[in-house]
Write a structure and sequence with these properties.
Elements: H1 2-13, H2 17-36, H3 42-59, H4 69-87, H5 107-126, H6 129-139, H7 145-152, H8 156-181
Helix pairs in contact: 1-2, 2-3, 3-4, 4-7, 5-8, 6-8, 7-8
């Protein structure tokens, strides 16, 4: 997959619109999920994805193979998101859907799963943005700490520290939510 993405970037650098469309379609849902952890505003997320992919189109020739294509694109998205969030006057909202396409289960199981998803969602929202991004990139986008450090333009040890503090906070938050659910 990585090799295919490198080839696509090479084609994009030469102005190939079809290659760009393929990459755009592959990354739109991934970037939207990632950005939802930062913004929670569907309109802003779409705008940030489009801004990100515009940068990819314009700067494909600058990709230097020092990291994965996905890391490079997520780095651009992260910086675009920070800019957009800082410019935005709107309060950050959540249009998080608790659950889509659920398997038919007993009502008790469905309610318990919904409560757990709500608790996790609430706990993630209580984290500072930098910690929320680290958790998101680690668990939802399968990035390692080095890739996250490149994406967030910070040292690997900073990523590790953010993850450590995020886990501690999540543990405390979720344990108190667990008591509320019971």
């Amino acid at each position: 997959m990585e090799e295919h993405e490198v080839q696509l970037l090479g084609l994009i650098a030469r102005g190939d619109r079809q290659a760009f469309e393929v990459l755009y379609r592959a990354y739109f849902p991934r970037l939207a999920r990632f950005l939802d952890k930062m913004s929670r505003n569907a309109f802003l997320i779409e705008e940030i994805v489009n801004d990100t992919m515009l940068v990819v189109w314009q700067k494909a020739h600058t990709f230097n193979h020092s990291c994965k294509v996905s890391t490079w694109i997520f780095s651009i998205a992260y910086r675009q998101a920070l800019k957009a969030i800082n410019k935005s006057d709107d309060p950050i909202e959540s249009d998080f859907e608790l659950y889509h396409g659920a398997i038919r289960n007993e009502p008790e199981q469905v309610i318990t799963r919904q409560q757990l998803q709500m608790a996790i969602h609430k706990a993630l929202n209580e984290l500072p943005m930098e910690q929320r991004v680290v958790v998101s990139l680690t668990y939802f986008h399968d990035m390692d700490y080095k890739e996250i450090a490149v994406t967030m333009d910070c040292p690997v040890n900073t990523v590790k520290t953010r993850m450590f503090h995020a886990r501690q906070k999540l543990k405390n938050i979720l344990s108190s939510h667990h008591e509320e659910i019971l």
